[in-house]
Amino acid sequence: MSRDPIIQRALETADDxxxxxxxxxxxxxxxxxxxxxKEMLQYLPEGSFQITFSWIxxxxxxxxxxxxxxxxxxxxxxxxxxxxxxxxxxxVLDDFIQRLQELRVLEALPDNNYKAFIEWxxxxxLKAEIGEKAAIERxxxxxxxxxNARRLRNLFVHNHGLFNEMYEKSAIRKNKMVLDLHPFxxxxxxxxxxxxxxxxxxxxxxxxxxxxxxxxxxxxxxxxRKYFGVLEGYSYVREGKPIVYxxxxxxxxxxxxxxxxxxxxx
Length: 266
What we know:
By secondary structure, this protein is an all-alpha fold. It has one domain (5-265). The protein has 13 helices and two strands, in the order H-H-E-E-H-H-H-H-H-H-H-H-H-H-H. It has helices at 5-34, 37-43, 61-67, 72-102, 114-125, 133-137, 139-158, 166-169, 185-190, 202-228, 236-239, 245-250, 255-265, and strands at residues 48-50, 56-58. It has a two-stranded antiparallel ribbon. The longest helix is centred in the N-terminal third of the chain and has 31 residues, at 72-102. The radius of gyration is 21 Å and the shape is globular. 24% of the residues are buried.
């Protein structure tokens, strides 16, 4: 039996995007260490920047640079990259589900939301047999991490990155999935009236990225096995798939060529 190419393409698109997040973080962190504050001042807009087609905001260049001094840039990257991470994973689960429903091998889920997608994926992989044994055994833990990322994303986009009671209440508690909680949440529980921010430093974000990539591959293998009879797991070596960061960022599009063409036409 052969893999379903649409399911595999969804895997590879998400996999590239997740690894692109790692590359982006490494690049920006290295760039901040390499560039001096004086050089940065030369390239920032003078005095103001545009926020709508009609409005501008005045600002202080020095103040902006000081705001993002270490470790703040790393923490802000953690925030925006966690949102990107969960968006990618939600999209690939949606792609998997839609494809299986198009083939009429999967019925509609009770709910059409990210939490329901994760619950569906978790139920499916609990019977997984293809992949690294240790990775399969830690699925209750890695899926707990994936669900934690979902709930932290909700705090970032709905609650200004501050803990609330829904953070723990909305957690998935099925089939021994391990409840994963941010270490700062205990401060909020001591005093729910206190504004406690979600801090995502790089090592903590790495944990989320590793869990999502690991879960993604086990899930893909299980889908191909259950619905398409494929007994061989996906392998970077067999697929001849080295890390190509341009592909991670833009797929197979030649962005440099397109930009050059557009510039010549202006």
